[in-house]
Amino acid sequence: MHADLDHLGDANNAPQSDNFYSLLPKQSHSVKDEILQLTFNSSRPHDLVSISLYMDASPGCGGIAWPAGQILSSYIVKKAPEFFQAKIVLEIGSGTGLVGLVAGVLGAKVWITDQAPLLDIMRRNVAMNGLGPCVTVAELNWGTDIPPDIPRPDIILAADCVYFEPAFPLLVQTLVKLANPKTEILFCYKKRRKADKRFFSQLKKHFTWAEVTDDPDRAIYNREAISLLRLCKIDRGQNQVNQNK
Ligand SMILES: C[S@@+](CC[C@H](N)C(=O)[O-])C[C@H]1O[C@@H](n2cnc3c(N)ncnc32)[C@H](O)[C@@H]1O
């Protein structure tokens, strides 16, 4: 756990905008055996996505629901469900699994992944939401080979994965291994420190990116230094195919 990772749930008294808090449920860093009920509104009235989320901060920072994960979840719910239908989705650094669980509700075949200590929380959340048929939990450590049972996805989701500088090259390597130039990558990022720019200077050797502009909540979370990016792997022709093998 990286103690200096600021969490908006901890900052209920901090001078952040009321609008932003209306996007997020309250929670605290000392969460232990807590179940959060989250409901996300779709663009179509009466079409809500509800998730029960078991949280436990003791195995690491991923055991609670981070704002970037909630923002990414909220965005994918607002996108037409067709975006996920019959798609293979892989979430990296899933923590509780929230974003991947939402993608599962929306009709995707999903893999939620993280380091070993988080897997039990994710399994519990899959079971609690009855998503066993469409959401698989798997260990995926950034920078290591992709286990053979994890498929190459159509869509990669990542929320709040840029916070620990030694992991920057590992995260880039994993994105490189998983993606091809057609892979849709939604990357929700909270800027915390100047060093974060080193992640982006490593990323730009392999990916281009642009801010997602069709999210009506964008201005609210941008004010809290959170951005939602769409990454695109640079097409290097035949080399690309060899690299992904
Ligand atoms: C700040 S949490 C975000 C969790 C979740 N995506 C969310 O938004 O609530 C960062 C996550 O990245 C995971 N992580 C960090 N380093 C990792 C690594 N080397 N390999 C795989 N996952 C890692 C952590 O275990 C944690 O779950």
TrEMBL record:
Organism: Amanita thiersii Skay4041
Cellular localisation: Cytoplasm
Coiled coil: none
Protein's UniProt name: Protein-lysine N-methyltransferase EFM6
Family label: Belongs to the class I-like SAM-binding methyltransferase superfamily. METTL21 family. EFM6 subfamily.
GO BP annotations, alphabetical order: methylation
Its EC number(s): 2.1.1.-
Positions that bind S-adenosyl-L-methionine: W66, G93, S94, G95, D114, W142, A159
Keywords on record: Cytoplasm, Methyltransferase, S-adenosyl-L-methionine, Transferase
GO cellular component, one term: cytoplasm
Pfam families per the UniProt record, alphabetical: Methyltransf_16
Function noted in UniProt: S-adenosyl-L-methionine-dependent protein-lysine N-methyltransferase that methylates elongation factor 1-alpha.
Main location, first listed in the record: cytoplasm
Gene: EFM6
Entry keyword Cytoplasm: yes
Secretion signal span: none
GO molecular function term, any single one: protein-lysine N-methyltransferase activity
Residue spans crossing the bilayer: none
